[in-house]
Amino acid sequence: MNKAVVTRFAPSPTGFLHIGGARTALFNWLFARHHGGKFLLRIEDTDRARSTDEAVAAIFDGLDWLGLRGDEPAVFQFERTPRHAEVANQLLASGHAYRCYATPEELAELREQQRAARQPMRYDGRWRDRAPEDAPAGAPFVIRIKAPREGETVIEDAVQGRVVVQNVELDDMILLRSDGTPTYMLAVVVDDHDMGVTHVIRGDDHLNNAFRQLSIIRAMGWEEPTYAHIPLIHGSDGAKLSKRHGALGVDAYRDEMGMLPEAVLNYLLRLGWGHGDEEILPVARAIELFDIAGVGRSPSRFDIKKLENLNGHYLREADDSRLAALVAPRVAARLGKTLDEKQSDILVQAMASLKPRAKNLNEIAEGAEFLFKNCPLDFDEKASALLDDSARALLAKTADVLQPVQFWTVEAIEDAIRRVAEDAGLGLGKVAQPLRAALTGRTVSPGIFDVLFLLGKEESLERLAAAGHATVG
């Protein structure tokens, strides 16, 4: 690859960063990184009625979270309107475009005739070869491209392979509307050219657009980019991805579902691209391996359980301080209070015990909640069932054995609890179960020795005493 690679991600700011868009951005970013090129961002905000500042912010926020930042400041398409109009007028002057004076009523009638005749609905070129003098004085007009009418247009797509369209199927699309504003088709081509984009990597729903956009590129004598149209993401049932398959916006995976960005990136990478049997692909490894040749032609299916399992892996690998900082707001939201500095330190210590069994940040927050609750605890139904009279007697013995423990270490705690079990002639599990219920109010928690250690001696004994005297069930 001789020429420096330049890729781009060009979302429309009409809502959140779609999970499919995030994968497109990732593929563009990885391809540029793999080849030592540039990854650029463009906000396609020409639809002024639907584009919002909030959506622009949401897109940048999602990309930042995933680490997919552009190598240059983002281009805003609307700001380039004069340049788009300039190119349309150049095409007009060179004879590759023409003024069309057809009225909306005439075009509506044409569509109705084509519909009745069961013909493809496309503009019939009625002003293509007419002289502008034939138009009524001062009549509004649009500028249309003179699309090729004979032969065929071929795209050697890096993903789809050789794709051919007969030129008779291409219509003379509008470049500049009657109010002087450019169409999407024109703006995209001009922006890609001016930004130096060498590889257009995007969803295969844009494949038909490529043939129409090539007519502009060739009319201007510009270098054609390499096209790579990647299949869309489908739901687990094979249907087009929709809300019923799960969250669609990247922000939901971060905020509501508690995913880590590296897990989402790894999962999106494996949706439609692969390298042997490697499932765990950190970013550095992905950059090393990624190329378009590994992208398949078939739509990939989104599987939330695979994403959760992958997220669990990255949780276990994550730094405890980083995890605690991500979990703390979720714990605070559950408790209705902010954690103080001491509690934040406890949360960091708790990560080693909490993260092995969790699949997302919400599960870690749920598992950590017991550490910061006030005594006496609320017991769930299963915990209450465990705390019968014999269990409370066992809790009292446990408290007696723990009371003289001088150095509150996991090893010292384990030694004490094992002595309780031996003295009572019980398996360790039979002691741990009511102990867990008394200390957490639940029947699921980190290991019981870790629970006691994290709570500290004073808090542990207070909870045991409260559970021993509480009326439960």
UniProtKB/TrEMBL annotation:
Family: Belongs to the class-I aminoacyl-tRNA synthetase family. Glutamate--tRNA ligase type 1 subfamily.
Subunit structure: Monomer.
Subcellular location: Cytoplasm
Record motif 'HIGH' region, residues: 11-21
Gene3D superfamilies documented for this protein: 1.10.10.350, HUPs
Gene of this entry: gltX
Domain Aminoacyl-tRNA synthetase class I anticodon-binding: 324-467
KW Ubl conjugation (keyword) present: no
Reactions that this protein is recorded to catalyse: tRNA(Glu) + L-glutamate + ATP = L-glutamyl-tRNA(Glu) + AMP + diphosphate
Species of provenance: Sphingobium cyanobacteriorum
Record EC number: 6.1.1.17
Pfam families given in the database record: Anticodon_2, tRNA-synt_1c
Domain Glutamyl/glutaminyl-tRNA synthetase class Ib catalytic: 5-308
The keyword Nucleotide-binding is annotated on this UniProt entry: yes
Motif ('KMSKS' region): 240-244
InterPro entries membership: aa-tRNA-synth_I_cd-bd, aa-tRNA-synth_I_codon-bd_sub2, aa-tRNA-synth_I_CS, aa_tRNA-synth_I_cd-bd_sf, Glu-tRNA-ligase_bac/mito, Glu/Gln-tRNA-synth, Glu/Gln-tRNA-synth_Ib_cat-dom, GluQ/Sye
Protein's name in the database: Glutamate--tRNA ligase
Xref: PANTHER family: GLUTAMATE--TRNA LIGASE, GLUTAMATE--TRNA LIGASE, MITOCHONDRIAL-RELATED
Keywords tagged on the record: Aminoacyl-tRNA synthetase, ATP-binding, Cytoplasm, Ligase, Nucleotide-binding, Protein biosynthesis
Function field: Catalyzes the attachment of glutamate to tRNA(Glu) in a two-step reaction: glutamate is first activated by ATP to form Glu-AMP and then transferred to the acceptor end of tRNA(Glu).
